[in-house]
Design a protein that fits this description.
This protein is mostly beta strands and about 100 residues long. The chain has one domain (about 20-100). It has no helices and 8 strands. It has a 5-stranded antiparallel β-sheet with strand order 1-8-7-6-5, with no helix packed on it. It has a 3-stranded antiparallel β-sheet with strand order 2-3-4, with no helix packed on it. It is globular, with a radius of gyration of 16 Å. The N and C termini lie far apart (about 35 Å).
Length: about 100
């Protein structure tokens, strides 16, 4: 039996995926139905070098809530540093920001 006062019953809260969080710039396509699809991203190294990552393949996408803030979570795959790697992109429409979890 669950207890509560029903104030937060509109959506389920999630935890931020485990791993390193990094701010990234993402080129995204928004469809005519309002869906978003990340196409490529640029990330900055500790030395200030900008690394482009193109041809992002989106494996899954889902809407999630972290601390009450709606966020789109994309499980992705792309060639990064010469190797195929999987990572997560988080898009927060509230402040139009992208983060990568690796």
């Amino acid at each position: 039996m669950a207890f509560g006062i029903g104030t937060n019953s509109q959506h389920t809260e999630h935890t931020i995926p485990k791993g390193q969080l990094q701010d990234v710039a993402v080129k995204c396509w928004f469809t005519s139905k309002g869906e978003s699809r990340p196409l490529m991203m640029k990330l900055q190294t500790d030395q200030g070098e900008i690394i482009p990552v193109e041809n992002i393949q989106v494996l899954t996408s889902e809407k999630q809530f972290y601390a009450g803030i709606m966020t789109w979570k994309y499980k992705c795959r792309a060639v990064k540093n010469g190797m195929m790697q999987e990572f997560i992109l988080l898009f927060t429409p509230e402040d139009c920001s992208w983060k990568m979890v690796y």
